Amino acid sequence: MPLSGRWTLTRYLIEERRRFPGASGDFNALILDVALACKAIARIVAFGTLADTVGATLPNGMGGEVNVQGEVQKPLDVLSNEIFVRMNEWNGHLAGLASEEMEAPRQIPASYPRGKYLLVFDPLDGSSNIDVNVSVGSIFSILRAPQEVIDSGRDVTEADFLQPGAAQVAAGYAIYGPTTMLVLSVGNGVAGFTLNPNLGEFVLSRADIRVPEQTQEFAINSSNSRFWEPPVKRYVDECLAGKTGPRGKDFNMRWIASMVAEAHRILMRGGVFMYPRDTKDPAKPGRLRLLYEANPIGFVMEQAGGRASTGRQPILGVKPGALHQRIGVVFGSKAEVERIERYHHEPPPSEAPAPLFAPRSLFRD
Ligand code: F6P
Hints:
The protein is α+β, with helices and mostly antiparallel strands. The chain has nine helices and 17 strands. The chain has helices spanning about 10-15, 25-45, 75-90, 145-150, 160, 230-240, 260-270, 290-305, 335-345, and strands spanning about 65, 70-75, 95-100, 105, 115-125, 135-145, 170-175, 180-185, 190-195, 200-205, 215-220, 250-255, 270-275, 290, 305-310, 325, 330. The strands form four sheets. The chain has an eight-stranded mixed beta sheet with strand order 4-3-5-6-7-8-9-10, sandwiched between helices. The chain has a five-stranded mixed beta sheet with strand order 12-11-13-17-15, with helices on both faces. β7 and β8 (about 180-185) form a beta hairpin. Bound molecules: 6-O-phosphono-beta-D-fructofuranose.
């Protein structure tokens, strides 16, 4: 293991690649372009409402609002999307891109070569938090394009992206907080890199991130509690009951409303995050998006020894049905996520067996 804080992202990727003597280097080059997009977004986010001083205004006709100077200002999430696209479409490593901000997959322009990977991303997750200066982030997922797409070089379709999270080649996020960090998994654990603003380089600062198995902290938007399903309600009630309840310990609750920030906290010190399926809007089977929120964060969690679930099954096993599909999400410390899954599979308390063997009994196993 390298000394923490001594390797740049480039070196980390090269050292990782040495495990695969046949690797071409395309993948590393792609990650570096993704990282460059994140650095550019970090810069714009840091300028906040002063962003037009760093060129965050784009030509008219591109869907922004006109500012007092008569320039068109793009919302930061649309601008971040443009940055991701522009910094990755040219490099010859991608067969196509898809993002939260684009209804359909983006084709690689005819003037550039096409490659073997697909890039899926949420360019600025939690962007409403920008207004209140709370941490936000970019989330990315890299998949292999189907072989037939690589061989034919044809345009990508939505169906090409509908791969389960377990098929991800790499995933990660950048968090724009007091420091900018890139947290990455290339399928061999999770590493965290802090942006050194003097060098403009991501430098390895957390070599082998592991999610603590046990926790006393949970995160959920409890304003939705009346819509929760019974297993979620049971879990939260038990946490709230604290020391004198069935868990026998007090819990803390956190809700930042910025999933990247919650995921990062959980990777650093444990915890569980829930945005479960609920009954608020029967048309929506969850709030978060599967392909560019749940899957990449789920991949990172599992690679860090945590767990990611819908509550009913592992997130990474879900076969997506649509590019912008929503899903119920529970992730974090393994023991807690497994407990929540168990509650989903157990019969509701009214159908539970006699009290002697019920979960609160002295005789539970
Ligand atoms: O999906 C965007 C997002 O901002 C997430 O980052 C966050 O976890 C969630 O929405 C917040 O939802 P709510 O507004 O219900 O708190």
